[in-house]
Write a structure and sequence with these properties.
This protein has a five-stranded mixed sheet with strand order 3-4-5-7-9, sandwiched between helices. Helix content is about 45%, strand content about 15%. Helix 1 packs antiparallel against helix 2, helix 2 packs across helix 3 and helix 4 packs across helix 12. It folds into three domains: about 70 residues; about 130 residues, Trna Endonuclease, Chain: A, domain 1; about 55 residues. Strand 4 and strand 5 form a beta hairpin. It is globular. The chain starts with a strand and ends with a helix. The model has no long low-confidence stretch (mean pLDDT about 90). By secondary structure, it is an alpha/beta fold. The longest helix is centred in the N-terminal third of the chain and has 14 residues. It contains twelve helices and nine strands.
Length: about 280
């Protein structure tokens, strides 16, 4: 039976893809089999992948919140909008977890023009600037035009410095997106030395992998908060779930009951077990 993907194309429904996503989220085997059985029973010709995801998410919520939250991680990153600023801040926190110091929305003067840089990161071992391309839904890819103008900006900033320290020269350029790159963009990047980071690439170092490795889960992943409550947290600069643990008073003006607040803290601790 064919299903409709986010970009409008169709493909045969492959249970193994859903099984893989559920396994990555930490669902137990008996839970996976239960969900697959229900999904296959309710499947209809042309059903959208978003509907399949939503059904699986609802079934996961019946059992363990952390599993449901991890399963919804990609959608949670889409919900960092509507502007790209929270996504830029989110990326900064991921690289800070890797040991970098970061600056966001940095103004740098190049040889021919002045540029606003989405993200700059530096450490004793490396420093780079990054173009952050946020998309609010799947199916949208970063094309070669993004790579072309980003590389032109990088060349113009060859002599610029991120900060005053010795390690602050710009060594490399990264383009980061929460979706994917076109094959033309990937080919150009490989030729020109641009580092590409997308949701599922490069393998073992993808955006998805980094989030799980450093437990830098965005607050939009939490299943016990409404969309409006998540937006309020982001407006206050609370981007990561771990920041709720560090600043428990951040929940105070969300109109939550004591029981609801306790549920949120429990969910965050389950997600960020090493913190």
């Amino acid at each position: 039976m064919k299903i409709t993907k986010a970009d409008g194309s169709t493909e045969e429904f492959k249970p193994q893809k859903l099984i893989s996503s559920l396994k990555k989220a930490g669902a137990k085997q008996n839970e996976i089999f239960r969900i697959i059985g229900i999904i296959e029973t309710s499947l209809q010709e042309g059903m959208r992948t978003q509907m399949i995801y939503q059904k699986a998410f609802e079934l996961l919520r019946e059992s363990e919140d952390p599993v449901a939250a991890k399963y919804s991680l990609r959608r949670a990153v889409f919900n960092l909008g509507p502007t790209g600023f929270p996504f830029e801040d989110f990326l900064g926190k991921i690289f800070e977890a890797e040991g970098y110091r970061t600056k966001r929305r940095l103004i740098l003067k190049g040889k021919c023009a002045t540029h606003e840089i989405d993200l700059a990161a530096y450490s004793p071992a490396h420093s780079f600037i990054a173009e952050a391309k946020f998309h609010a839904r799947p199916g949208i890819k970063c094309d070669i035009q993004v790579a072309l103008y980003s590389y032109a900006r990088y060349l113009d900033l060859a002599s610029a410095r991120i900060c005053k320290d010795d390690v602050c020269g710009i060594i490399s350029l990264s383009i980061i997106t929460n979706t994917k790159f076109t094959s033309a963009a990937a080919k150009y990047a490989a030729c020109s030395g641009i580092n590409l980071l997308s949701w599922d690439s490069p393998k073992g170092e993808s955006l998805h992998t980094k989030i799980e490795k450093y437990e830098t889960y965005p607050v939009t992943v939490l299943t016990n908060l409404s969309a409006g409550q998540k937006q309020k947290l982001m407006e206050k600069g609370i981007i990561l779930c771990t920041e709720i643990l560090k600043n428990p008073y951040s929940l105070q003006d969300l109109g939550l009951s004591s029981r609801k607040s306790d549920d949120i803290f429990k969910e965050v601790r389950s997600l960020c077990s090493s913190k």
